[in-house]
Structure formats: C-alpha cells, structure tokens
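Figure 6 in text form: structure in, sequence out.
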C-alpha cells in the first residue's frame, strides 16, 4: 500500500491512540537554513608553513575536505591581529589578519577558493571587548576623546580614605572583579572577560558606527556572514547595583559565586544585534545584489533569553543545551535517554514557528562530545542532530570522533586555566578540545611538518585520523558523511518531526512526508539490548524499514542494506540506527 493511502486512511479514522507531538517544519528557502556549519579552530586545523600553528593557507589547501564531507559553510575562529592572550578573542585590530594566520591577501584567496567550490565562509565577530593593545584603548588610557568614551570607566567608591571598586561584579575567567584600575586615568575600566580584554561601551553611538565599519570591511572582502561572540554581555545595568550571592559553593573570585542579574542578558543587548542585521541587509541592497548574508549568535543563557534573539534579526541563535544548562558554567547532564530527549524537545517547543533551529554538540569552549558521552554514543547524537530540521554546527574534528587530549599543567596555554592552579586547571582548561586536527598517521598527524606543535597532537592520531577513516569500510567520518547526504532529500527539508523516548532508553525520531520515504533514527542510550514496536509510538510508518546507517560500535555495520519489520526492531546496547521507510514505488 502506498504511504499516501495509509496516511489518508488514518486521517479518516482519526486515530488518537498515540499521544505524540508532531512538529511542522519551516521549509528552507535560503541557503543558510540547510547549513552544515563547520567551526574551524584555525590554529589547529592545518599548518602550511611549518611553524606548528594552523593558518589561512592551510585551510585553503584542505577545502576539499568540506566538500567531500558535505559541509556547506565554514566559520573561522578569530584570525585578527591579536596578542593572543585569549586565543585571538582579544583583538588589537579588527581590520587586519594576525601575522601568525597569514595576510589579508591570503584571506581573500581563501574566500575566492571557497566560493569557487560552492562553500560559504563566515567569520567570528567579537564586539563585546577589544584587546588592551587596540589603538582605541591605548588612546583611551591617555584620556583622548572620543576613545576614552569607547570603554566603560568608573572612578570607584570611597569608604573613608579607602578607594574601592564600584560594586562586586566578577569576571567570567574567575579572576575576581570586573574592574581594573588605570593609574593615569585614576579610574577603573570594566572587563567582563579577562583583564586584558576591556569591554566596549555599547551605550555610545560612536562605538556602533565604528563596528558597522568593521562589518562593512569584511563584507567588502566577500564574507557570507558573521558568528557574533558573547552577545549576553554587551550592556551592563546602569544602576551598577551589586549582584546577589548564588548558592554555589565556590571561592569568592569564581564567576559562579554571584547571580548575574546586572551584567548578563540585559534587554538593551537585543536591539544592538538587530541594528547589525539591518546594516548587513542594507549593504546587500546598496550593492544591488540579493546575496543573503547569515548571522548566528553565541549566548549561553536560559531558553527564554536565547529565543528572544530570533525576534531581533538573528537568523540562528546557537543551541548550547548539549553543552551548558542555561548558564556559562553549569555543565549539562547527559545521563539518560530522557535527558537527551528533553534537550531536543526544549528547543522545538520554544522556537517560534517560522524560524530555523540549530543543533550543536561541541565547540572550542568545552570537552569534546566523544569524551563527554563516550565514542559509542556520538554517532547516534550526530544522526539525530543532523536529521532534525535546521542548521547543524560541527566542531573541528568531531567528524572523526576526536577525543580530548590530556595536557599537563606545563603544556597548558588557555588563559582560563592558567589563572587557576596545577591541581584545578583541568576543570577550566579548554586546550584538550583544541589540539591539532588528525589528518593522517605521519608527523604531527599530518597537521604540520614540524614535530612540535603549539598544542601537542593526541597520541591516538596513529589510528584516529581522516586518511584511516576514509579507507575503512565503516567509520565516524563515513557515518556522518552519509547522514549529511540524507539532508539532501525532500523528507528532510519538508517532513514533520516526531521525537519520542521509548522504554526510558531509546531516543527515536521520525521525519515523515506524504509520498516520501520516511527517515527514522533510533538511538539506544543504555548498555542493554531492547526490542521495540514502532507502531506504539509513530503513526503511518511503512511495515518495512531499511537500515541505511549503523553506528560504529553497534555490531550492525554488516547489516546495512537489510530490511527490518517495524513491529519488532531489536536495537543493540548503545546502538544507533538510521532507517528509511520502504514504501514508495520508486524505492531501490
């Protein structure tokens, strides 16, 4: 029987036996809505000149990797001029490329080469703060206007003869106060991040004008959009009120010591991003082209604050709920199938109906997904995330199942870890997820000709590397590549979404569209085999399903191509399966 007839019959019968929520999908009309967006940690991707650090020419030499994998857009972590105190998020010049990454000519060549291959490129945009070495701040420290007013200053508060900070606010890097005294100004400047990263004053329209010029500069060089860093922190409460004590048991210099009601998620942040989006749209209109540029934002906040970005011109707010539980320092719990289900559904339940979702499992600020949930679970999470509608954001090396690299205290370079101690640094260091990409089993994993790299290569590169995974019959790389290919189907673009938890251990997802082969993903989060009847959870599935992808550790690799009966499907422990319904006449 054809799927369409089954569907019609069930609608007529109006069966309400299954208590499922089905989500309709925003059908993509713009290129970015189908994005597989790849976050390049530039310093760790590919070294072209043998200095042990990745660079722009290295990326250019490896663009075919993205095309082969099915990535549509690459995002470059900061490549600007910078003292590199915070991996380039401390920018000393917004309109030049740091010499360790290359030159503006190299950047232009990279954009041209990417565009020739049909790849889009977005750049990291860091408008909350500059480096203390930025010309604006150097002049601000000398009291030169208008630059002094580009930053947030305060004269402090006297208690008798004792001068103190204006309030108790703490910086995100756990260094203590956000206020840093500048003797020649007899004033404190504010830094929500590290002490070498003074915050820009976003209540000053001159700052907006400067930053719009920066956007224009990169648009002129052909970028396809921007990933906007740290959006919850742009504006602080003008009352300068103290923040209340949290109930977290940490030192008084730790960011978690306070509730950040005055320094985070302020309503004034949102119109700033909206103004940038309008500027970007106006740029395209003025050029007389209809090229659509894309913006996405980084906000680790409670869901209502994150969703609000959609109302202010943001194409896609990043979905960090697989990383943090709404707060920058509260790790998410991923213990049960219900935990996983809740994260997926939380976004779908809160997202405005005409918007595009985002799914993201890892980034440069957190331990790798394979280290957080185990290698045997990463394929399944990728399958569901890639086959749900929306933009999928993939972190540098996750397609290989790369894992965290253990680094000693001496080997650690991350500013966030270096402000702690040799006994606690591992809790804060972001270096283990930033080690070089593993291309092959040659010197330095093929990342560099230099046997010494800026962070050491994971010793597992001998077996875990792109060349080996391309050779193998089954690998993380090949599984993710296959899942990405399934996005190029009508059912992925337009099909409804139904996601369920089965027997407290299976996360199950179905994408269905009248007349199309449905896609079903099953992920067993637990270490016991179970048999399920999909009819108890999903309506209208065809009787027979074909296994098209099986996760690496499921023991089902040899069964790919076999068909299964939907009413008695056995899913091995920690096993994940992607199945296609066999129902349309053109099935082959």
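Output sequence:
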């Amino acid at each position: 029987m054809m799927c369409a007839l089954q569907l019609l019959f069930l609608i007529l019968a109006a069966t309400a036996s299954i208590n499922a929520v089905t989500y309709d999908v925003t059908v993509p009309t713009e290129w970015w809505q189908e994005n597989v967006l790849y976050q390049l940690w530039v310093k760790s991707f590919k070294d072209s000149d043998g200095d042990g650090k990745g660079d722009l020419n290295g990326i250019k030499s490896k663009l075919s990797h993205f095309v082969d994998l099915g990535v549509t857009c690459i995002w470059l972590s900061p490549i600007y001029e910078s003292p590199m105190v915070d991996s380039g998020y401390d920018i000393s010049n917004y309109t030049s490329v740091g010499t360790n990454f290359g030159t503006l000519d190299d950047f232009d060549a990279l954009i041209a080469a990417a565009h020739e291959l049909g790849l889009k490129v977005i750049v990291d945009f860091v408008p909350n703060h500059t480096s203390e070495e930025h010309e604006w701040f150097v002049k601000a420290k000398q009291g030169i206007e208008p630059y002094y007013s580009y930053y947030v200053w305060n004269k402090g508060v006297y208690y008798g003869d004792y001068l103190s900070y204006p309030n108790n606010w703490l910086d995100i890097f756990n260094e203590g106060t956000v206020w840093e005294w500048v003797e020649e100004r007899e004033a404190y400047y504010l830094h929500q991040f590290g002490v070498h990263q003074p915050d820009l004053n976003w209540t000053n329209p001159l700052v907006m004008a400067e930053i719009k010029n920066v956007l224009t500069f990169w648009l002129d060089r052909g970028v396809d959009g921007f990933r906007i860093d740290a959006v919850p922190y742009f504006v602080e409460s003008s009352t300068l009120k103290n923040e209340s004590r949290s109930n977290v048991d940490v030192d008084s210099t730790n960011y978690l010591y306070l509730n950040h009601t005055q320094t985070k998620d302020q309503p004034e942040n949102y119109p700033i991003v909206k103004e940038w989006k309008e500027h970007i749209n106006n740029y395209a209109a003025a050029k007389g082209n209809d090229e659509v540029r894309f913006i996405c934002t980084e906000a680790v906040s409670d869901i209502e604050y994150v969703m609000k970005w959609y109302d202010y011109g943001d194409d896609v707010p990043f979905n960090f709920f697989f990383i943090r539980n709404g707060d920058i320092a509260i790790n998410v719990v991923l213990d049960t199938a219900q935990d996983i289900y809740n994260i997926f559904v939380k976004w779908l339940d809160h997202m405005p109906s005409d918007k595009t979702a985002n799914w993201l499992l890892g980034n440069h600020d957190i331990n790798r997904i394979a280290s957080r949930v185990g290698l045997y679970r990463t394929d399944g999470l990728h399958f569901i995330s890639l086959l749900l509608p929306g933009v999928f954001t993939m972190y540098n090396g996750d397609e290989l199942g790369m894992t965290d690299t253990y680094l000693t205290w001496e080997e650690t370079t991350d500013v966030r870890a270096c402000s702690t101690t040799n006994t606690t640094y591992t809790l804060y260091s972001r270096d283990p997820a930033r080690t070089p990409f593993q291309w092959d089993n040659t010197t330095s994993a093929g990342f560099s000709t230099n046997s010494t790299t800026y962070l050491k290569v994971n010793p597992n590169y001998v077996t875990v590397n792109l060349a080996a995974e391309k050779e193998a019959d089954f690998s993380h790389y090949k599984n993710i590549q296959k899942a990405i290919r399934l996005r190029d189907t009508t059912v992925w673009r337009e099909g409804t979404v139904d996601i369920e938890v089965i027997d407290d251990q299976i996360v199950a997802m179905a994408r269905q569209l009248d007349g199309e082969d449905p896609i079903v993903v099953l992920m067993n989060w637990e270490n016991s085999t179970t048999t399920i009847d999909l009819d108890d959870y999903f309506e209208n599935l065809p009787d027979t399903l074909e296994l098209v992808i099986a996760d690496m550790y499921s023991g089902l690799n040899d069964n790919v191509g076999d068909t299964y009966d939907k009413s008695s499907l056995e899913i091995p422990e920690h096993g994940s399966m992607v199945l296609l319904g066999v129902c349309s006449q053109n099935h082959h």
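Caption detail: Residues 408-462 form one domain.
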